[in-house]
Amino acid sequence: MSKFSVNDYDCIGFDLDMTLARYKLTNYNELIYDALSNYLITEKNYSKEILLRPIDVNFTIRGLIADTENGNLIRISPDGLILQAAHGTKWLTNEDIIKYYPDHHWKSTDFFVKAPAVNSDKKFRLLGDFLNLPIALMFARAVDSIDMVQGPQTNYSVLQDIASGMRSIIFSRNLCTNDLGVFPQLKKNSENIYHKCSQRMLDWLEELKSKGKKLFLMTGADASHAFLTAECTLGKNWKKLFDIIICFSEKPDFFTMERKFKALDGFRETENVAAEDLKQGGVYTYGNWKDLKQFLITISSKRSPKVLYIGDNIIQDVYAPNFYCQMDTVAICEELEAEKRVGFAESDHPDKDFIRSTIWGSFFPTEKINETFWFNLIKKYAKICVPSVEYLAKFPVDHTFDKQF
């Protein structure tokens, strides 16, 4: 059995949301769902009766795919076979699935499984992380709303409406800076939204630095949003933990394209920054792996530093850095605790009811479903899979883990 130790790496990168920064998912998702449902009801005329029903936490699971044309949520195997599906909130039988997807396959997802980081198909949207759980439920209920009023459609515009709503409440840049959308509530009630990192985890990060490891933070969040999240979770001195901070990185494109880094004046982007001009302790947006790697070579004084990246998004944080950049990765998978998998049953996840689903079943292989697309990616591209960075910090920096797969 192969072994893994964080201590074997010269440079270690971290995602922010759902990795270093853990959310109180039930509270956060209720906030997003309430704001989004209000937008769709008032701005897009969706059914108040359907959208304002109590949140069904059991309906959602991480990793669903929304079929925008048919109004379906689907779950797929590693080869693209459609394992399960729902039309709106209505569960589809095997016979129903075949009516939509002959042979249980769909061209869009058949292409997707061959190139997971290349997702330009507007016929579907990945709902690959926990921050998408309220979107999955909203999508399904919005489809129900349309069906109730207009009957089944050949092309649903639900995701466009949801995307417009999400831009108005959280996803547009600078909403946090200008106290728009849900950000006034996030700031006012941050203790109800974020888990504060333990002192043990902060000490673990400091110990990595004391051993000469170079740490970097790379997040897809806008700088103002990332700063709020990091301060609420890591504390006021959070920036001192990292040798470079990259916001709005646009993963997975960060690992496949060569966008220039941009400097920041406050939260305002200014000029492009070349690799040789990146500063230790600096904060930037955009960027690319080629320039970041050159920066890490410089500050580590190693010709070929060994790099590890830790994150929760299976495509952005696990597959893409490993497949395109040959970077080792650790997958953060809170389902391990929520489902009380072997080795992780001692902890009771506070948001287990929001994470697990008796409708869709386990995130992991079962007797009924031998393999899912997402877990297959974790097995192939992650060194280990753990429920949190807090879990890693329970062990000494030089602890050796058995590779699980």
Automatic annotation (TrEMBL):
InterPro entries: HAD-like_sf, HAD-SF_hydro_IG_5-nucl, HAD_sf. Gene3D superfamilies: HAD superfamily/HAD-like. Keywords: Acetylation, Hydrolase, Magnesium, Metal-binding. It comes from the Eukaryota. Pfam families: 5_nucleotid. GO terms for molecular function: 5'-nucleotidase activity; metal ion binding. The keyword Acetylation applies. Belongs to the 5'(3')-deoxyribonucleotidase family. This is 5'-nucleotidase domain-containing protein 1. It comes from Psylliodes chrysocephalus. The lineage of its organism: Eukaryota, Metazoa, Ecdysozoa, Arthropoda, Hexapoda.
